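Quick one: sequence plus flavin-adenine dinucleotide SMILES, need structure tokens.
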Amino acid sequence: MDHTSIAIVGGGLSGTLTAIHLLRTAREATTVYLIEKEPRKMHRGVAYSSSLPFQPLNVPAARMTLFPEMPHHFLDWLTEHQPVYPTLLPDPISPDSFVPRCVFGDYVEDCLAVAEADALKGVRLVRLTQEVLAVEKRGKNYSFAVSLRNGSQVMAQKVVLALGNLPPADLPIPNKAFYQSPLYKASPWSPEILNALPAHAPVLLLGSSLTMVDLVGSLVKKGHQGKIYVVSRHGLLPQTHQVDAVPYPLAPVRLQRPLSPLKAMRLLRKEVRKAAQEGYAWHSVVDALRDSLSGIWHNFSFQEKKQFLRHVKPYWEIHRHRMPLASSLMLRQLQEKGQLEVKAASLVDLHANGKMVHAEIRERGNTGTQILEVAMVINCTGPLCDYTKSKDPLVQQLLSEGLICPDDLKMGVTATPAGNLLNAEGLPIENLFTLGPPLKGLLYESTALREIRHQAASLASLLLFGEAMLEAALP
Ligand SMILES: Cc1cc2nc3c(=O)[nH]c(=O)nc-3n(C[C@H](O)[C@H](O)[C@H](O)COP(=O)(O)OP(=O)(O)OC[C@H]3O[C@@H](n4cnc5c(N)ncnc54)[C@H](O)[C@@H]3O)c2cc1C
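Reply:
Sure thing.
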């Protein structure tokens, strides 16, 4: 009997869920290596490993099942496990609950343990907590050598690069030396970032997305009393979920023809007006569009994609990535009492001045600049997508050997819709795959559970049986 060996680099949601599907569906002898560099991120990745207080899922529990064919799977798991979480889950679970993200991480880990226990004889999982430094193509039997930081190697016929979300990039400023200062926190996701911040000190958060909202929540939960400035180019906050919104039946036929970003927005506004007359919330129209988005994005020309990113994306993102009502009320309260100030401004420069930082910003529409004096600056601008800017040793090695190629817009890497990576000539690299955030340039929507769970199931089928079982996201 042939033995298949598959190495998954990255133990976040994408890597773990691929491992789960491999263990559930492999019928012949298979070894799955799941390799994660940070112990606390094993089975959780960036999103579900946070130990900061107030880090809720941004999607109601009813929509967070790992298995779409079992829509109540997560809800049932939560109900069964609620007694284990007297502090994190004090209230009875409802489909509309926004539970802490670390609890979802436990669910993912538990599903992997079940898949491992139920796997057929000869199908096994090997967890390795090591950083992968290189993936190199080798001879015929073992297609790849995966080199780990401890000097050992894993030989695998197939490799999945589940590298996920790269840490945010530093914003361009003249005084780059500031970024070495302890007063700057380059990533909002490290658990210890808030420890050094005195409770009454003013703080500046760069970026106004959901990550910023979560961090403000964590600050408040830790009893922070100081001023919180939020600076982002548009100063737009995420919209609020409406959990009781009735699903909107959007006819897919209307979206099949190629649409420019402008026409797509006009059509969306028209559809929202029509939906409102019929009693539907705009939230339902945006959600109904979700499955058509990759197709619409794919049909845009290169110039249209750039137009979308520049002019439409900021508005689209705040409607698409919404916050729970509790988060929205918290922000409003903080704004009303003057503790939170959101500014539509660009960052001009940052200078350390003793224990404080002078943050120079230019508000939108103004020519002059102003200085905010804060004790800490935290970068909440979101994951870096441009792989050419990454300092990660593995990413640099993969780029230099042509095993990953950035897409034209530098939003991720080039690949087929099924996740097979493409070389510089646009040809598939045999047995090398990816899923999740690296496919953003191709699919646009490729970072949330809803997309990742389809991709992981499909990729497992491709790895084991040579064909992706689920429908491709693109037309
Ligand atoms: C803060 C946050 C909150 C989110 N909340 C939600 C939500 O509520 N609902 C929803 O649907 N989606 C949410 N998402 C989106 C989505 O679920 C995540 O983007 C998703 O978890 C991505 O998983 P991933 O495994 O691809 O990436 P990651 O979570 O980034 O995992 C990649 C892993 O690879 C590891 N790795 C990288 N390089 C190496 C290497 N060289 N060697 C070994 N290991 C390596 C990293 O350490 C990391 O653990 C959220 C995302 C974020 C960032």
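The first helix runs from residue 13 to 25. Residues 252-320 form one domain.
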